[in-house]
Amino acid sequence: MKNIKIIEVPNEIGAGTRGASLGIEAIRIAALDFMSNFFNNFPVEKIPTENKLLYDPIDTPYAKRIKGLITMYDRISKSVSDTLKDNFFPVVLSGDHSTAGATIAGIKMAKPNSKLGVIWIDAHADLHTPYTTPSGNMHGMPLALSINDDNQECSIHELDAVTKTQWNALKNMGKIAPKVLPEDIVFISLRDYEKEERHLIEKHGMKIITTSEFRRKGAENIIRSIMRYLSDCSDIYVSFDVDSLDSSISKGTGTPVSNGLKEREAEDLISKLMQIRRICCFEITEVNPTLDKENLMAEIAFNILQRSVNALMMH
């Protein structure tokens, strides 16, 4: 049986839409509405944020608030690393997806010799860099910095020295770069990405499982083929962005996209993944209750969280 620790990261300096920092509280409220004492069952660590920076003018337009993100990466990577070293399984609840790179850094710091695989359940590839970003929002960049690829071939921006230095600091967090090899990343339900990101996916031959392929083959078969594909990875991190769900249900997130997973499909997929020994960390991200009615997104996220943790506890 796994010891579980919940790490709460109510960060939203990486997002373009405000409100993701309230996502964790919304998930807690969903638990209360379901009369669940889930959050009493596990140790919880809440990471202090730099959300005060949201009120300051932006001085690095191609990597907005990156200075605050470096601080966050320090805190989160240390927390995740310590959690793993203490033989706990980190379940990370984060505001926006920009900090996923810190979770990955923490896993690598705890297990520097492990070959890490990543299962990225998300409508978006999050493979932009400050050189290619259309928005400057850092939640579109965590995978690019984790594979340590600037994608200079598709560069559209000249970076100033400060942004360049800070971006390099993020990529080298924990003094390990790259943290993940691009061929050890599997995208599920990816369906909304730019040509610059497509360039990296094609250049590295990264694996994509579309929503329709998932539906056609079913969770069991998909997971079997992913585990074969990642057979030489000794540890696997699962990151679940709620916008992987179809836009008909994922109203409460900053970037909803149609043709996504249904709630039951996501629940099925993740709870089955959590039964696999090599999974070492699970993250849920991008719940934004300010965009939602009746706290629906947080309720769905809580259902997935609870089922996943139950599956973890049993294995």
What does this structure look like?
The radius of gyration is 18 Å and the shape is globular. It has helices at 23-33, 66-85, 100-110, 142-147, 161-171, 195-204, 211-229, 263-273, 296-314; strands at 3-9, 44-46, 88-94, 116-121, 185-188, 207-209, 235-241, 279-285. It has one domain (3-314): Arginase, Chain A (3-Layer(aba) Sandwich), CATH 3.40.800. It has nine helices and eight strands. By secondary structure, it is an alpha/beta fold. The protein has an eight-stranded parallel sheet with strand order 2-1-3-8-7-4-5-6, with helices on both faces. The model has no long low-confidence stretch (mean pLDDT 97).
Which keywords apply here?
315 residues; alpha/beta; Arginase, Chain A; 8-stranded parallel β-sheet
> What is the mean predicted local confidence, pLDDT?
97
Shape: globular
How many beta-strand elements? 8
What is the class in the CATH system?
Alpha Beta
Unreliable spans: none
Q: Order of strands across the biggest sheet?
A: 2-1-3-8-7-4-5-6
Order of helices and strands: EHEHEHEHHEHEHEHEH
Percent helix, as a range, is: 25-40%
